[in-house]
Request: fold
Amino acid sequence: MQLWIDNQKLETVSERFENINIQKSENFTSIQVEKNQLIQLLKFLKEDLGFKMFIDFFCVDYPLHNPRFQGIYLLFNPDERQRVAVKCWAEGDSLPTITSLWKGAKWAEREAWDMFGVKFEGHENLVRMFLWEGYKYHPLRKDFPLRGIEDTYLPSLNLRPDEKPAHNYSPYHTVLPTMEDLERTQKARIQKKNQIVLNWGPLHPGTHGTIWFLFDMEGEYVKECDIVLGQLHRGVEKIAENLTYTQFIPYTDRMDYISALCSQVAYVNAVEKVLGVEPPEKAKYIRTMMCELQRINSHLLWLGTFALDLGALTIFLYTFREREKIMDIIEGIAGIRLNSTYIRIGGVAKDLPEGALDVITHFINDFPEKLEEYETILTTNRIWLRRNVDLGIINEEDVYSYGLTGVVARSAGVPYDIRMIQPTDAYDRVDFEVPLGRVGDCYDRYLLRMEEMRQSLNIIKQCVEKLKGMEGEKYIATDNPYVLPTLNEVFNSIESMVKDFNLRIYGEQVPEGEVYLSGENPRGELGFYINSKGEGRPYRMRIRSGAFYNLQIFTELIKGRTVADAVVLLGSLDPVVGETDR
Amino acid sequence: MAIKHNNGIILTTVEEVLSWGRRNSLWPASVGLACCAIEMMHTAASRFDTDRLGIIFRGSPRQSDVLIVAGTVVNKVAPMLKLIYDQMPDPKWVISMGGCSSAGGPFPTYATLQGVDRIIPVDVYVPGCPPTPQALLWGIMELQKKIKAKKEGKLWEEIPVREVPTASQPIKEKSPLGF
Reply:
């Protein structure tokens, strides 16, 4: 199912604007526009054609082209469920800022400046997004090496005189920031206007990883806020350009490590789309079932840590008890507990082991009781209510302006669920509800996530029923030339062995083209934009992270609230740093 | 261990008592960086329950004596991690949890620190991506053995390099320490 802009709207655009170039393909539809008409076109799309939701902005580097960088804007029409991409060449390495149209573009533009060195005219504070002030390079440019410039002498402190170091050990390392650099980074973000600038994080247990908050405080109240990200920026998008499509699957796990399987499914679906691979029916049901298991797992971790942040330690221990059960199920099926690289292009890595469905059935029969237990403790708890209700209210306007997705968008009453809008795998064949919030506060988001767990159980139940009748069916479409053969096939037929060798060495020769496909992660829309030049490796891979955009609204919502509210608000937005920083 | 007399008197040294106390009440600073932090939380939570080993996660580095580096250390966070290490009172130990903090792991990139031992000395490396809670418990027990060995008057340099068994090179004989 495709969601790109229809021809009628494209005609309206081409009548209105001259000098535009419309590229329409099955997987991606874009409108290329001159730089001086960009803002007018975006405004027209937003106000007249209903593309009011901001999805993503990113750049692509073409070193041999002049101008060198191309900015791509992704927009969504929530009423008619259509997407459109707008491309614009950055003449003079700069683009006009679109923060006046969509506030959510602020961080995306900072990221483009950080990674590519593209400037934005009129941006309110164009600073480094992930790296620190004083860093000399723009790492996602094509002429920057993956390993960076290793110019600092930084030997291992553990190397003994008699020890032989590992084969790839080098005492030289890429440059590390000094504390002064970090202080400069902080100063560039926020200027002290009130009494004190309070640092929260990056290595604070309450910040869900390594997010670094800066609060400009007046007494106990936060007046201004900014967030420094990049304390887990590992360069995943750069890695993707250097690996084959199959090799990148483990990295999708390590981005959003709490919902590894959902990320894998979102990525693999995008690759399958551009390759034209159709996974077998059984694989689709397995994927859906595993995704929903992982969703429960992720929400349980959220509930445990959220309650822990608010002082309810018992819930943390309870939810981790249940998490261990799901982890055991995943370990039994995929072989690995947390970062299970289970999904493959064209299917799944292994068939369901004997008894897997019985264990899952047992779990889904057992789990509603536990869920009840949590709700008994929390839902009507006075402390819980007083800390959650009417905090961080998000309205529909915010959702479109900031590009909020997932539970955060649904709490504001916007029915934005990729599982419904663009069902992949077996989501169009299972029956489930999308719960929506009324107020849009933290309490609504809590209730939604609890309800989502119930819906996930429902989906798993349907998948288990279906999978019971599919025993012995194929779980990976190895007939397709792009799909890696199973181990058994490799050992028993020479053709499969040659195919396996070719695919592993040269990668999947993806036909030239672009694709944007997203999946519903527990944290929001996780989208993959893949730009292929017909090679075994992607030319550019952009990962649209739900948590990155969801976190952005934190700076607005916390204004006028206390620091104690910041803990609750952050917990209810539920970011994962591996995904926001990539 | 201490010498026991049958009339109820235990003779020991101050050093020995301190070492016994230290290795049985390792308080880690609760610093989580990436995926390994989730497994670290699992180690602390209901099933594996590190409390029974005297391991209680502390919120402040001033109160802790073990730093479990759980997750990818990137260049930007490295000075802050070093600051946390410097804030911890002596004696202190570091467990490098997982492939990323041990040697950069699957991220040989411009932004990642290729091994946390380039900024702080590491006592125990726990392999895995991420290591299971069992593996982390193994690492903690290795650290306890190391603290015990150090009490016996050996300098850190004198403790022999431990061979790690791999599939291609299994350990042939027992190491002198009897691990």
About this structure: The helical segments of chain B are 14-24, 35-44, 78-87, 98-103, 133-151.
